[in-house]
Design goal:
The complex is a heterodimer. Chain A is an alpha/beta fold. Helix content of chain A is 31%, strand content 26%. Chain A folds into 2 domains: 108 residues, ATPase, nucleotide binding domain (Nucleotidyltransferase, domain 5), CATH 3.30.420; 74 residues, Nucleotidyltransferase, domain 5 (2-Layer Sandwich), CATH 3.30.420.200. In chain A, the strands form 2 sheets. In chain A, strands 6, 7, 8, 9, 10 and 11 form a 6-stranded mixed sheet that branches. In chain A, helix 1 packs across helix 2 and helix 3 packs across helix 6. The radius of gyration of chain A is 19 Å and the shape is globular. Chain B has 2 domains: 130 residues, 2-Layer Sandwich (Nucleotidyltransferase, domain 5), CATH 3.30.420.40; 174 residues, Nucleotidyltransferase, domain 5. In chain B, helix 11 links the parallel strand 9 and strand 10. In chain B, helix 2 runs parallel beside helix 3. Chain B starts with 5 loop residues before the first strand and ends in a 23-residue tail after the last helix. The relative contact order of chain B is 0.20. The chains are: A alpha/beta, B alpha/beta. At the A-B interface, helix 1 and helix 2 of A face helix 2, helix 3 and helix 9 of B. The complex binds zinc ion.
Chain lengths: 226, 348
């Protein structure tokens, strides 16, 4: 098995190759506006680093967000198109789950405690967030991902450790900080590989936008005559 | 002719997800998915709505183009994509998809200019371009007069709109007349029943002084306001608005200026070939008047069929195939989408 993992839901443009056992190569660039530029070169780079060809990839997994739309879509369209071109399946994994999973991987003793929050930058002074339970055995999400002003969820999550850039951007409302700031495709791939090995069905590669497009019908025409 | 490079082109600069496949100068497939209906109630293209639609349409449209053309992706010689100009978020979806195809298939990638692609599409319709050619490109996003010595790397701007694009003026006037979005086809349709000499609307930038400073430039903002004022004056007077006559008179004013300046550009540059492209080039009155004036001036007029004038992937594939044929080197895999890509930059 050779799993290509891509995530563009946070400030990291991150790509990894995973052979079902371990991460073979990872390429991550942090640039909140450069998603369009770095994903494809990242794929080429991990293939070269791992000494594999595009034709060796047997499945693609992509972070489905939630995340700022323009960046998020780049990962999704890249993953879907790559999978179509190679004739292999493509799956989605919630990007917040991948971050919680990474925090667990980095502290496998389970000393993380029972509950924590993943909160990422949703722009417009808001965060994408969800509640998690992290134990020695792994991670479980306890709420659907949502988007909210950091101050609005401060009471609900008070005292819980916070994974992700939300803890840095809104330290007055969220924290203490722990774990990664952005998604790592290596962690995303590891989570997907474990789910596949356990026989779990992975989600479709559909974007989690959580907001409707900003669009309003035009106001009545202004008169041209004085 | 069956030879030439096999190129797939992707276009997502506005609200059409286009994937075309060309072999040399032969069009094999032109698959387009449009989100235009989703924008209609907003009276204009909503960028985020367009971008979401591009993501959903991309793989199905690539699949449809391959099926239409009867080719496998592995058979391709190159991938081409619109790198700009256009809506930033929309462009990024197409550019990311094209890069992904390039890296998945191990094929060269060409990031190309949308406007040059509007010119190049006529190659699959009427064969190689005369060099140089004068090109008039008119759509909802652009109105440009170009001198094109070589569409694969030398495109020069003679003039462009200084305010609204021609297609924008059609949309705005359609709204004034109570016609649906997008305005172009509807104004064209009702105008066929109208008297184009009913109102003498102004011809922007055609006076002596303007011709000195803005010889090949266009302006449609004043015309649009003038139509709105005329209609409002009628409404305030409680008189019915002769929609067909106003539409025909407005359209006549736009088409008169466009064709007059295009023919002038040909004459003053000693170029006897004019090519008209872009969405507004589907307008029947523009096509008729351009033909008439070119015939009178001894200029050979080329116009792609209306279906190839609006945004599509075939135009991008057509330009890509020319670039491969002429041995131009491929773009880098980190090429950016450039929403304000200058018309003089053919390749990103
Ligand atoms: Zn166009």
């Amino acid at each position: 098995m050779l799993l290509l993992a891509i995530d563009t839901a946070t400030s990291a443009i991150t790509v990894a190759l995973h052979d079902g056992e371990r991460v073979l190569a990872e390429c991550t660039t942090v640039d909140a506006r450069g998603h369009g530029e770095y994903v494809a070169p990242g794929i080429a780079e991990v293939l070269t680093k791992a000494g594999r060809a595009a034709a060796d990839v047997s499945a693609v997994v992509v972070g489905t967000g939630p995340g700022p739309y323009t960046g998020l879509r780049i990962g999704l369209v890249t993953a879907r198109t790559f999978a179509f071109a190679r004739g292999v399946p493509v799956f989605g994994v919630c990007s917040l789950d991948a971050m919680a999973h990474q925090a667990w991987l980095e502290d496998a003793s389970g000393a993380l405690g029972q509950s924590c929050v993943v909160a990422t930058d949703a722009r417009r002074k808001e965060v994408y967030w969800a509640l998690y339970e992290i134990s020695g055995r792994g991670v479980r999400r306890r709420s659907e991902p949502m988007v909210a002003k950091a101050a609005m969820i401060a009471d609900e999550v008070r005292g819980l450790p916070v994974i992700g850039r939300g803890a840095v951007l809104y330290a007055e409302s969220l924290g203490p900080r722990m774990g990664p700031l952005d998604v790592s495709a290596g962690a995303l791939a590891d989570l997907a590989a474990r789910m596949l090995a356990a026989g779990q069905t992975l989600p479709e590669p559909e974007p989690m936008y959580l907001r409707r497009p900003d669009a309003t019908p035009p106001p009545p025409r202004r008169p041209a005559l004085p | 002719m069956t030879g030439g490079p096999l190129v797939l082109g992707i276009e997502t600069s506005c609200d059409e997800t286009g994937v075309g496949i060309v072999r040399g100068q032969i069009l094999l497939a032109d698959a387009v998915a449009s989100s235009v209906e989703e924008h209609a109630r907003f009276g204009g293209v909503v960028p985020e709505v367009a971008s979401r639609a591009h993501l959903e349409a991309m793989v199905p449209t690539i699949e449809r183009a391959c099926r239409e053309a009867g080719v496998r992706l592995d058979d391709l010689d190159a991938i081409a994509v619109t790198a700009g100009p256009g809506l930033a978020g929309a462009l990024l979806v197409g550019v990311a998809a094209a890069k992904s195809l390039a890296v998945a298939l191990g094929k060269p990638l060409y990031g190309v200019n949308h406007l040059a692609a509007h010119v190049a599409v006529d190659i699959v319709e009427h064969g190689l371009l005369a060099e140089p050619t004068i090109a008039l490109l008119v759509s909802g996003g652009h109105s440009s007069l170009l001198l094109v010595p070589d569409v694969t790397h030398d495109v020069r701007s003679l003039g462009s709109t200084i305010d609204d694009a021609a297609g924008e003026a059609f949309d705005k006037v359609a709204r004034v007349l109570g016609l649906p979005f997008p305005g172009g086809p509807h104004v064209d349709r009702v105008a066929t029943e109208g008297n184009s000499a009913f109102v003498a609307f102004p011809r922007g930038l055609t006076s002596g002084k303007d011709m000195a400073r803005h010889r090949y430039d266009f302006s449609f903002s004043g015309l649009k306001t003038s139509v709105a004022r005329w209609v409002e004056a009628r409404e305030r007077a409680g008189e019915p608005v002769p929609v067909a006559d106003v539409a025909a008179s407005f359209q006549e004013a736009v088409v008169d200026v466009l064709t007059r300046k295009a023919v002038l550009a040909c004459q003053e540059h000693g170029v006897d070939h004019l090519l008209i492209g872009g969405g507004v080039a589907a307008n029947t009155r523009l096509r008729a008047m351009a033909q008439q004036r070119c015939d009178a001036a001894g200029i050979l007029l080329r116009m792609p069929r209306p279906g190839l004038c609006t945004d599509n992937g075939a135009m991008v594939a057509a330009l890509g195939a020319q670039m491969v044929s002429k041995g131009r080197s491929a773009s880098a895999l980190d090429l950016p989408a450039d929403s304000s890509m200058p018309v003089t930059l053919v390749q990103a």
